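Write out the 3D structure for:
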Amino acid sequence: MPTTYLPYGAQKSAGHVEEPRPIDGPLAVKPIALYLPQFHPIPANDANWGEGFTEWRNVARGQAEFTDHYQPRIPANYGFYDLRLPSVQVRQARDAKAAGIAAFAYYYYWFDGETPLLTPLSNHKDNPDIDLPFCLCFANENWTKRWDGLDDELIYKQTYGTKFAARFWNDVEPFLKSEKYLKDSQGRPILLVYRPSIIPRFQTVASAWRKLAKEAGFPGIHLVGCLSFESLSSLTKGLDSYYEFPPLNTYARSFFGPLSPKSVVHGQYLHSRTHVHDYRQFVMMERLLRSSPSNIHPAVMPGWDNVARRPFAGNAFSDVQPAVFEEWTALAARRAQATEEKLLFVNAWNEWAEGAYLEPDVRYGWASLDAFSRGLEASAKKTADETEKPVAIFVHAHYPEVWAEICSLIEERVQVPFHLVLTTSSDADLPKPSSDWLRGFEIHRVANRGRDILPFLTVLEKTKLDFDIGLKLHTKRSPHRIDGATWRQMLLGDLLPPGGCKSFVSLFREDPNIGFIGPEDHWARIGEHIGSNINVLFNISVRLKHDFSHRDLSTGRFIAGSMFWFRRQALRGLSLATVEDMFPDEAGQVDGTAAHAFERLFSLIGERNAYVTVATNQVAGLLQGLRGDDYPLNERMRMFSDQMHVVHEASGRIALSRVDNPVPAPTEISAPSAPARSPMPETSHRSRIHRFAAGNKYAVAIYRRLPFGAKIRLRRLLGLPT
């Protein structure tokens, strides 16, 4: 039977969500979703684009311009809807309300009295079955055929003619008086203005609106400006507050500056001028924010990709993950809780041609709305200060005779409060460390299955410990290698150094974007050490609902030896139930099992969750920069953001060049430099190893049996790729 080809956007993702998830309980914030009404025909569009034109025509023409580019976007449950039908808005309002959204903010197109897209807004006001508050966002740009608000190819020109303030007010007043209209805590209707800075004499206009609002019986009006093109240093006067508008502008970007596009985009058409950015940078910036002004309302976006409107000349964000959107939502919602009105904006409910929508699509289903709901719920949960939480140390002691060595290191070198969780397949008596820092000790007897990986995944999921920072160790012997003990000692010496591990814990607590700290010289390329694990890797990634591509697995990196410090959130999304049956009983396998595959996935999963990996030898330099007090907070944040978001030249991945470029001390603030290591040479490294071994027939065999770290050091001495 022939297979049916489906475009990428029509294929169901491993992370597809079938049903929306309702919010459980009240929320501490009021989420407002921006709403585009251009999904029904109007005469102006018929005249300029052809009869029957709606935004769906733009959406349908989307095409992929680079590898794994999610185009076209195909709507699912609502289909290619027509907003002339009130039943569509009834369903939208029902689903939005169940997910925790407090109101829709309709873009209100008003051009000197003409209101071309008024039908959906009137439906919402007049139809009692559309059960959701709403407000207006005055979209006061020019309406052009280029979708850029400039002066070229005009459809409608924004003129602000005679008596603009009064005429505009007369048209919006019936909506503001609706019982459904969104009010602030003082009972004032909330009116958004997209580009207040381009309205002539806006302060005078705002004063006129406030006077008219009181004459209409309101206590006033709450004017909210958009930070789309505004800078914090030149905010328009006359407004009560502002809302962020990602991707154009957020409060965090006032510190970090513009987001640089990726320098390497795999598979991009040569004639494509589309800029591709990394979506994960937004949540990484949000983590660094401690607070924001009380008059700035945070905002999030589920994605952004406007190539459907601007083919081969747009802006797109890659690496969009529902889990990352969920975390961004939770962090932004916590900022919103600190503002007076507690408003949280999301761009948007249905901006399909810009790839910014919460509505369900064929590929991901309800994943975006589900992630948004989860983020809202997570923001409401009070979390203890992580500095009060002990570290959790997980050790798998398959070889009881080695436990005494690790136990001694823990006693001597762990000088922070910690819980110890020990797993073993042995019946031997394993002593508890004698340490004043020990807060809890558990032993779990497990089957000899899945090496150190399955026991770790099991206790990580089932533990009731409240921790943020963990350390994963095991009694590594690698009996198939003559250097197994040496390799173990090298790993343990790096992760539990003689000076103690306080600096590692401090880095996690001071830099919220650190996901893993691995041993020095054990940051290896998956593609060069993939062995017979490729099929198992793909099967695991599908079960965990991660769409890892061949590029991810060929250019990604992993911590060899599977011992590392980690942040619990970096491993978010692991589900034991989905992969447990993939681990075979132990039979001396040296490769090709789920345990070997998982070793290569930990860092990739962390990367998907917008966390980066650094090496133990870089911790001191990173801490030195974080603690520099000679520069303002925004300068220090910008410095680390620049280092964090440099795109790795070889792979276009997120921030991994930070591993090769330790952050400079505060006195050395500069633009990020290129990776320190030389690019891969053109000649075969195998022949160079043989030349190195010339005259000694045992040298190559010895090299193959060297500890991983020793191999790396030797290859560096020879100028070979690492």
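Residues 685-717 form one domain.
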